[in-house]
Design a protein that fits this description.
Layout: H1 2-5, E1 8-13, H2 17-26, E2 33-38, H3 41-50, E3 55-59, H4 67-75, E4 84-89, H5 95-100, E5 105-108, H6 113-128, E6 135-136, E7 139-140, H7 143-161, H8 166-185, H9 190-201, H10 216-219, H11 222-237, H12 243-254, H13 275-292, H14 300-308, H15 311-314, H16 317-325, H17 327-339
Length: 340
């Protein structure tokens, strides 16, 4: 998955040799990450003039020129706007002030290795979403025609795999249709809401050659699910990156993440989880709750209450509230799909 993000250079601004070693050791096997090191803020500012840097890991308490002074100086220079800056500090109470002054992330010492790796990956992932997609290797492509072809190809794969399982086919179509409807309620335009439909439809495309079933996210162990997420993601990265592919990759990689940071594969948390992935996650939960109602005894209020139980742990509460406000509409739409 790091391959999709590409080669990146991280500047470590830290005066503690052990911390430098520890950070570099985390990424020893990651061939896409290159490190350069500065022992204080003045060295860091000089290196920024000489090297292209994508992210800075900044110790806040250093001699000569501390992290706060370094952050302020970097943020005054427009040419460094695209560089993400993550603080490393022993004082956890400094996090909000650091973000307010222009920082992008905060890691408390002694830092958790997995948390550091996840935060770096998340920041790179967010930056990659802003890349222009209409040109690849400086060659212009008829994006709409390619995108339409991609949608047809992956939809046919899904339909072929589910041709003998009408329940699974309905569930996939239901999740896709409700994700599209929900995205419209959240203000997505026609083009992006249609891409939401297809992105939700192919979220488990990596399972196409094996045990593709209607409850796959719940039946696999974490390591198995991570592997299938990777397979799904890799199938998309081999494609020309159209708007559909971009949304599909975002949904694939993030729809199993939880708002509290305890999801997979990367433990992305809070606002770092995309709206697209959150939409699909909520709809998947909605679908699973309705599937539990074997005797059709749940009222609309029962369903809404059961979804609300997952609010703090799984979902962005603001987005979930909008879904619950419109739950009658989504239930009616699902019933219409069932009758088709």
């Amino acid at each position: 998955m790091w391959k999709e993000i590409g080669n990146k250079t991280i500047l470590i601004v830290e005066d503690d040799e052990f911390n430098i070693f520890l950070i570099q050791n985390i990424f020893t096997k990651n061939k896409y990450i290159t490190f350069i090191v500065a022992k204080n803020g003045l060295e860091a500012l000089q290196m920024l003039k000489e090297d292209k840097v994508d992210l800075i890991l900044l110790d806040l308490h250093m001699p000569l020129y501390n992290g706060w002074e370094t952050l302020e100086e970097i943020r005054l220079q427009k040419e460094y706007d695209t560089i993400s800056i993550v603080a490393i500090s022993t004082d956890e109470n400094e996090d909000k002030n650091f973000i307010r002054k222009g920082g992008d992330g905060f890691i408390a010492k002694p830092f958790d290795i997995e948390e550091l790796e996840n935060q770096i990956y998340t920041l790179f992932l967010k930056k990659s979403r802003d890349i222009t997609i209409n040109k690849i290797d400086d060659i212009s492509y008829p994006i709409k025609e390619i995108e339409d072809s991609q949608k047809q190809f992956f939809t046919k794969l899904i339909m072929l795999k589910t041709r003998e399982n009408s329940n699974l086919r309905f569930k996939l179509k239901s999740i896709a249709t409700l994700s599209q409807a929900f995205s419209i309620k959240l203000g997505f335009d026609d083009k992006n809401s249609k891409n939401m439909y297809y992105g939700a439809l192919v979220k488990n495309i990596g399972l196409i050659g094996c045990c593709f079933n209607s409850d796959i996210d719940n039946k696999l162990c974490k390591n198995e699910l991570k592997e299938y997420i990777r397979l799904s993601y890799d199938m998309m990265t081999s494609q020309i990156e159209t708007p559909f592919i971009k949304i599909a990759k975002t949904i694939i990689i993030e729809h199993n993440e939880y708002y509290n940071g305890k999801g997979i594969p990367y433990g992305i948390s809070g606002e770092n989880i995309s709206i697209e992935a959150t939409i699909v996650s909520i709809v998947v939960k909605f679908e699973s709750i309705i599937e539990m109602d074997f005797d059709n005894k749940f009222t609309n209020e029962d369903i809404a209450h059961k979804i609300e139980e997952f609010s703090d742990k799984n979902f962005n509460s603001k987005i979930l509230d909008i879904f619950i406000e419109n739950i009658d509409i989504f239930i009616k739409l699902r019933k219409k799909l069932y009758l088709l």
